[in-house]
Design brief:
Layout (H helix, E strand, L loop, with lengths): L4 H25 L4 H13 L3 E4 L6 H10 L1 E2 L2 E5 L6 H5 E6 L4 E6 L6 E5 L6 H13 L1 E4 L2 E4 L5 E6 L12 H4 L4 E4 L5 H12 L10 E2 H13 L4 H15 L13 E3 L3 H17 L7 H12 L4 E2 L1 H5 L4 H11 L4
Length: 329
């Protein structure tokens, strides 16, 4: 099938004005953290859920709230705590004494954007209720099943330095998130701008600049972006190298990897690379797009052995070796 890449590029250019407006609004509230903001946009463009991990005070919650504020959509923030119940999330049946019937009261999960703040502080039953909604995009309350919004995106945060009173997500549940993004400290100049903004009193509010229909149009264009067969083979080679590194010439990684990435990683690498190309204004995917999104797609899908933990080898170290070794088309 022939692909008209110039025509796709024209469609991307048509949508660029929208994405630039969104980025401009986000810059009112967030200084620096370009990588975090670009990954939020990747999730928005590909309809994929995102897990943000970082120490407190790095603007994780602020970034998500600002993204929701810049979109004319419904947003709910849920503070996960140890006493949270699944019904607090998905809803429950309420008894109506006047006629002896039960009425469904929907929970905050019925929103376009759901911020699951400190997701690792809620018990496993609550986590499972959220992750089931993320996967199936529907919720069952009583004997009725209700579909979720057409635009439904979960953005969760977790604090990696505090383990007391937390319930770490199992690997199988973390896999439901398209991206796991690690947030680092800002540069000195960026932190000075943050300080100046916080001490000032004239920071403009973030206003809605895009609607759900605008987002749907951008998502349709992202689906059109061309991925050459060689780039598709490159994606498969990267993912398969996490499962059988010795076959890819990296026998030194074999004792370090317990489980490699699933086919879901291949799908998300392709989708994420398309979104990266869209943000760069291109109608086609390059191997560099795949590399740029690889860490965020793979870091929570490459499960390491106890030997790797003993040697203080992180999943990012393994991914780096794979990216440096697998031939680039």
């Amino acid at each position: 099938m022939l692909v008209d890449v110039p025509q796709i590029k024209d469609r991307v250019a048509e949508q660029s004005e929208r994405i630039h407006r969104l980025q401009g609004e986000l810059s009112k509230a967030i200084v620096g953290q370009e990588e975090m903001l670009s990954r939020l946009l990747v999730g928005l463009l590909t309809d994929g859920h995102i897990l943000l991990e970082g120490v407190p005070g790095l603007a994780k919650t602020t970034a998500i709230k600002s993204l929701a504020a810049a979109l004319d959509t419904h947003f709910q923030r849920i503070q996960f705590t140890p006493d949270l119940l699944p019904a607090d999330l998905v809803g429950t049946m309420i008894y109506v004494p006047s006629d002896g019937s039960f009425k469904t009261r929907k929970g905050p999960i019925f929103s376009n954007f759901v911020l699951a703040d400190e997701i690792n502080r809620a018990p496993s039953k609550v986590q499972s209720a959220l992750l089931e909604a993320m996967q199936e995009r529907q919720v069952t309350i009583g004997d009725q099943t209700y579909p979720l919004q057409g635009l439904f995106l979960v953005m969760a945060t977790q604090n990696p330095i505090e383990q007391e009173g937390t319930y770490p997500l199992p690997e199988a549940q973390v896999d439901r998130f398209m991206l796991k993004v690690k947030i680092s400290y800002p540069e000195a100049a960026e932190e000075r701008k943050v300080l100046d903004m916080s001490l000032g009193d004239n920071a403009p509010p973030v206003r809605p600049v895009l609607s759900a229909e605008d987002i749907a149009k951008m998502q349709e264009v992202v689906k059109m972006i061309y991925i050459d067969d060689q780039v598709r083979d490159y994606i498969l080679a990267l993912v398969r190298a996490t499962r059988a590194p010795a076959e890819s010439g990296m026998s030194e990684l074999a004792p370090l990897i317990d489980f490699g990435a699933s086919p879901r990683a291949s799908i998300y690498l392709g989708l994420g690379a398309r979104a990266m190309a869209f943000l760069s204004g291109r109608g086609y995917v390059t191997p560099q797009d795949v590399k740029d999104i690889a860490y965020d797609v793979l870091r929570h899908r490459v499960i390491l052995t106890y030997e790797a933990e003993a040697e203080r080898v992180a999943s990012e170290d393994v991914i780096k070796t794979i990216l440096e070794t697998v031939p680039v088309p």
